[in-house]
Amino acid sequence: MTDQTCPCRAMDAQQLSYAACCAPYIEQRSPAPSAEALMRSRYTAFVVGDIDYLVDSLAPESRYDFDRKAITHWSRNSQWHGLEIMSVEQGLPGDATGYVEFVAHFTSEGERYAHRERSLFRHDAEDGRWYFLEEANRKNAPIVKGKQAGRNDPCPCGSGKKFKKCCGAAA
Fold first, then answer.
1. Rounded distance, CA 85 to CA 28, Å?
2. Residue 152's pLDDT band (boundaries 50, 70, 90)?
3. How far apart are CA 156 and CA 142, in angstroms?
4. Which DSSP string do the residues of 95-157 spell out, in sequence order?
5. 90: which of 95, 130, 134, 149 fits an S-S bond (Cβ 3.0–4.6 Å)?
């Protein structure tokens, strides 16, 4: 996959190879330089099925209910169509937090989805890494087109939580 276009850039104008884009973060575990870079690499980790990276890039305080089995199933049984970054607020070197709003396009169980979310990331000054903390805008549920998640299904946002304890809690 190293010479192929990176999945995180599939819907953007800039087309970087996987090796030049997300591979250093996913394969070598190099720290992502920004919240956006971490968001892109997390999407790519879903595409390539690197569940350990999803755990490692999740803030430790958010890992308590990560459902590895459900996330693995979702990652492996979905067709990933691309990622669109809608907006970025802060999340650069020197910032403590950052927000990334994105739309992830995928097909699961024959239904096409466009999942929109605004996520909060935090930077850990001690280890120099960015971490995914949580969906930041629970009052406005993510936009999901297609089959809706059931209460006990894994949340389509990729948090690893059940839908009822994550995005479904605001509904």
1. 24
2. confident
3. 9
4. -SEEEEEEEEEEEETTEEEEEEEEEEEEEETTTTEEEEEEES-TTSPPP--SSPPPTTSBPTT
5. 95
